[in-house]
């Protein structure tokens, strides 16, 4: 990959032990010999060091276990490692959890982002990449796409907290001149995703012949992107993006949930009778679809992995990593699953 206008040498990745963060850490270390990665992660239920077992011994990689709300400690870490940029993934990321308990979402996603912005300023205006979500735009009907100028209209406590964070990030750009960039991506899938999210949850249930809980009638549509395509887009924005700008990132792969679930069952050779329609998610957004033409035209990025190939690869990855899955499923996730789906 070519280098761009900004040439990072020491990146602080927050939330690097989570799903996308761990894929991003691996992506950076395997593509650039001269970049150090400092993974700042509080290791919540979603942070799993097994996700990074293969890079843990790499001299270019360091783990700093810390809550992002600890501003002074973040500043110390940035100074100690000579950090030149912050790529901010750390968040409470699951919509259903935000409906049950919104407070932690505001603490981590809003206060935590503010804390990192303050640290970025204190350390000499570090380049700051905010990993945002298309959910801040709200919900679409059967047609249309979100562009970067679509007004924010978040519907869940999760997306409201992410929208608040995006506003803070752009305010720090406008008010203090911090070199900030915001990306807004659609639904990711791929290796190391926590099995509370739809695709790994359905794979995990199907392999054990458990019911597959489809919310409502399964007609809701998401635009799926393979996680590596997202990671490549983020690096492109970090090095070539224009500070102050927002970049949408989408997978060009809109699918209704029920179609995704049926495809998973087909790949696993399991019967559709496992599908169980359950009570809908409150405030369930009907459809997301992303117009990624800005990042394509300005920075030359486009997704490379089509959904069918990516999904097959993902299913195979989970089947090859049953220890990883079992470890989660018999730990924090099992308790969570029982709480969330009790009575359905
Ligand atoms: P995840 O839940 O898998 O991982 C979150 C990580 O953040 C974990 O490692 C966790 O330990 C860490 N973390 C949480 N609270 C923290 C705190 N207070 N201090 C330090 N670390 C903390 O999340 P993900 O699915 O990988 O999402 C990563 C980011 O990408 C999030 O900001 C999310 O909003 C955004 N995003 C996700 C998707 C998606 O489809 N998963 C799509 C678009 C954007
Ligand atoms: O769009 C980007 C967002 O995608 C990210 O910002 C979030 O962090 C990420 O969690 C994801 O949010 P969703 O709510 O879209 O993802 P989830 O996997 O929870 O659900 C995908 C769809 O599947 C959604 O329409 C709800 C439905 N669903 C989900 C679960 C967990 C089910 O039908 N059954 C389920 O058990």
Describe the protein.
α1 (19-31) crosses α7 and α4 runs parallel beside α5 (157-176). With 344 residues, the protein is α/β, with parallel strands linked by helices. Strands 3-2-1-4-5-6-10 form a 7-stranded parallel sheet, sandwiched between helices. It has a domain at 10-192 and 225-252 and 283-305: Rossmann fold. Helices cover 42% and strands 17% of the residues. The termini are far apart. Nicotinamide-adenine-dinucleotide is lined by residues 15, 17-21, 41-44, 46-47, 67-69, 89-93, 108, 112, 131, 133, 162, 185, 187-188, 194.
**Name of the CATH first level of one domain:** Alpha Beta
Helix and strand pattern: EHEEHEHHEHEEHEEHEEHEHHHH
Largest sheet: 7 strands, parallel
What is the strand tally? 12
Number of helices: 12
Write out the CATH superfamily name of one domain: NAD(P)-binding Rossmann-like Domain
Structural class: alpha/beta
Poorly predicted regions are none
The radius of gyration is 19 Å
Q: Helix coverage percent of residues?
A: 40-55%
Bound molecules: nicotinamide-adenine-dinucleotide, 2'deoxy-thymidine-5'-diphospho-alpha-D-glucose
Q: Specify the CATH architecture of one domain.
A: 3-Layer(aba) Sandwich
Describe the protein's topology.
Blueprint (H helix, E strand, L loop, with lengths): L9 E5 L4 H13 L4 E6 L19 E5 L5 H11 L3 E4 L6 H6 L2 H20 L4 E7 L23 H20 L3 E6 L1 E3 L8 H10 L4 E4 L5 E6 H14 L5 E4 L4 E3 H12 L6 E4 L14 H7 L7 H14 L1 H8 L2 H10 L3
Parallel strand pairs: 1-2, 1-4, 2-3, 4-5, 5-6, 6-10, 7-9, 8-12
Antiparallel strand pairs: 9-11
Helix pairs in contact: 1-7, 2-4, 4-5, 6-8
This protein binds nicotinamide-adenine-dinucleotide and 2'deoxy-thymidine-5'-diphospho-alpha-D-glucose.
2'deoxy-thymidine-5'-diphospho-alpha-D-glucose binds next to helix 6 and strand 8.
């Amino acid at each position: 990959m070519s280098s761009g206008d900004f040439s990072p040498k020491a990146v602080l990745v927050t939330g690097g032990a989570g799903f996308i963060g761990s894929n991003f850490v691996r992506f950076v270390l395997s593509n650039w010999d001269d970049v150090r990665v400092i993974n700042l992660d509080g290791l919540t239920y979603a942070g799993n060091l097994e996700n990074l077992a293969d890079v843990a011994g790499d001299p270019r990689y360091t783990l700093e276990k810390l809550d992002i709300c600890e501003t002074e400690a973040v500043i110390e870490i940035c100074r100690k490692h000579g950090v030149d940029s912050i790529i901010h993934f750390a968040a409470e990321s699951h919509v259903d959890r935000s409906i049950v308990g919104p407070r932690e979402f505001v603490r981590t996603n809003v206060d935590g982002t503010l804390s990192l912005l303050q640290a970025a300023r204190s350390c000499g205006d570090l380049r700051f990449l905010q990993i945002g979500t298309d959910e801040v735009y709200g919900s679409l009907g059967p047609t249309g796409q979100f562009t970067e100028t679509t007004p924010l209209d978040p519907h869940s406590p999760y997306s409201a907290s992410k929208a608040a964070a995006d506003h803070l990030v752009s305010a720090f750009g406008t008010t203090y001149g911090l070199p900030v960039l915001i990306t807004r991506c659609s639904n990711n899938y791929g290796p190391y995703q926590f099995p509370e999210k739809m695709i790994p949850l359905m794979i995990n249930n199907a392999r054990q012949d458990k019911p597959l809980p489809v919310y409502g009638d399964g007609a809701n549509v998401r635009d799926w992107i393979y996680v590596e395509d997202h990671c490549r887009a983020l690096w492109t924005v970090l090095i070539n993006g224009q500070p102050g700008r927002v970049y949408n990132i989408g997978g060009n792969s809109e699918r209704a949930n029920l179609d995704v679930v049926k495809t998973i069952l087909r790949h696993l050779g399991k019967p559709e009778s496992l599908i169980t329609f359950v009570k809908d998610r409150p405030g369930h957004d009907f459809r997301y679809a992303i117009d990624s033409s800005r990042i394509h035209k300005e920075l030359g990025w486009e997704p490379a992995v089509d959904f069918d190939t990516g999904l097959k690869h993902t299913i195979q990855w989970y089947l090859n990593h049953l220890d990883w899955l079992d470890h989660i499923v018999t730990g924090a996730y099992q308790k969570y699953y029982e709480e969330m789906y009790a009575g359905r």
